């Protein structure tokens, strides 16, 4: 099943135009625009809200997200909440990793929006996705995106949703290359990426 993860922010942002894959949608949460480019009408999917703040404001954003999804997709989705309250201690970061990992299931098609939240949360997302893809049968990370939101723009401005899946895939590629025990790994990478043409 297609499963969309989004990190919940603490600020309240009104509806703005988000653009992704030749489509623009006015909404509060970029995950809503992203889902619209992936899901066919009536298709069932899941949404996982990852709350790294666990405050009254972030809880309000969770409720606003549910309402927006309901308006856009009716009852086509299941909604899940993950409390990933961030602390700087290693134990807290491991708990966040575990809570995320526990939401993955066999054959999930995972889409992740890392627009909001605290800086370490996307890193934890990458680690948990990487681990899940290796150890959960059939699970596939389809994409990782974020909205390049620019404050102070007029209401017609379209904030682009940027696909950073290549960073996730690059990490996996580098791990795989390291197993080949190349004598000159940088030369090997430059060959693969045709670096001279970049």
List keywords for this structure.
single chain, 198 residues, alpha/beta, eight-stranded mixed beta sheet, 6 helices, globular
Commentary on this structure:
This protein is an alpha/beta fold. Helix content is 39%, strand content 25%. The chain contains six helices and eight strands, in the order E-E-E-H-E-H-E-H-E-H-E-E-H-H. It has helices at 30-38, 56-73, 90-101, 120-135, 165-178, 185-193, and strands at residues 2-8, 16-20, 23-27, 45-51, 77-83, 109-113, 140-147, 158-163. It has an eight-stranded mixed beta sheet, sandwiched between helices. Helix 4 (120-135) links the parallel strand 6 and strand 7 (140-147). Helix 3 (90-101) crosses helix 4. The longest helix is centred in the N-terminal third of the chain and has 18 residues, at 56-73. It is globular and about 55 Å long. The N and C termini lie far apart (37 Å).
């Amino acid at each position: 099943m297609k499963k969309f993860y989004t990190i919940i922010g603490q600020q309240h942002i009104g509806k703005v135009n988000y653009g992704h894959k030749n489509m623009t949608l006015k909404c509060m949460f970029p995950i809503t625009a992203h889902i619209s480019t992936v899901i066919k009408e009536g298709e069932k999917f899941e949404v996982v809200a990852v709350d790294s703040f666990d405050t009254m404001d972030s809880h309000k954003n969770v409720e606003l997200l549910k309402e927006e999804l309901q308006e856009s997709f009716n009852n086509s989705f299941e909604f899940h909440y993950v409390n990933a309250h961030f602390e700087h201690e290693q134990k807290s970061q491991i708990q966040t990793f575990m809570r995320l990992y526990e939401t993955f299931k066999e054959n999930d098609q995972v889409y992740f929006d890392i627009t909001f939240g605290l800086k370490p949360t996307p890193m934890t997302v990458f680690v948990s996705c990487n681990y899940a893809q290796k150890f959960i049968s059939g699970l596939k990370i389809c994409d990782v995106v974020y909205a390049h939101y620019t404050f102070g723009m007029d209401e017609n401005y379209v904030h682009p949703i940027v696909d950073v899946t290549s960073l996730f895939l690059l990490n996996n590629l580098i791990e795989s290359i390291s197993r080949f025990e190349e004598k000159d790994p940088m030369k090997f990478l430059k060959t693969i990426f045709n670096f001279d043409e970049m």
